[in-house]
Amino acid sequence: MSILAGGIMIGLAALAAGVGNGLLFSRYLEGITRQPEARGTLFGQAMITLGLVEALPIISIAFGILVLFKIIG
């Protein structure tokens, strides 16, 4: 059962990261097309948000690996 739980955690973390990054950069490109002069500001904000979006899947993958190898749970 822990193999299934670990696999689900890792798979959903990868899915969430893909969806989050897709939404982030689609909004970033939309912002650039609306206001090209704000490109530098938007880039900095997009990179900070990218770090926040990627933090949760990385933590989830780590817990998934721990569950997968029965270190916890």
UniProtKB/TrEMBL annotation:
UniProt-listed CDD domains: ATP-synt_Fo_c_ATPE
Alphabetical keyword list: ATP synthesis, Cell membrane, CF(0), Hydrogen ion transport, Ion transport, Lipid-binding, Membrane, Transmembrane, Transmembrane helix, Transport
Pfam assignment, any one: ATP-synt_C
GO cellular component: plasma membrane; proton-transporting ATP synthase complex; proton-transporting two-sector ATPase complex, proton-transporting domain
Coarse class of the protein's main subcellular location: membrane
Origin superkingdom: Bacteria
One GO MF term: lipid binding
Site description Reversibly protonated during proton transport, residues in chain: 54
Transmembrane segments: 42-69
Protein topology in the membrane: Multi-pass membrane protein
Subcellular location: Cell membrane
Gene3D superfamilies (alphabetical): F1F0 ATP synthase subunit C
Domain V-ATPase proteolipid subunit C-like: 4-66
Biological role: Key component of the F(0) channel; it plays a direct role in translocation across the membrane. A homomeric c-ring of between 10-14 subunits forms the central stalk rotor element with the F(1) delta and epsilon subunits. F(1)F(0) ATP synthase produces ATP from ADP in the presence of a proton or sodium gradient. F-type ATPases consist of two structural domains, F(1) containing the extramembraneous catalytic core and F(0) containing the membrane proton channel, linked together by a central stalk and a peripheral stalk. During catalysis, ATP synthesis in the catalytic domain of F(1) is coupled via a rotary mechanism of the central stalk subunits to proton translocation.
Homology family: Belongs to the ATPase C chain family.
Record protein name field: ATP synthase subunit c
Source organism (scientific name): Marinithermofilum abyssi
Gene behind the chain: atpE
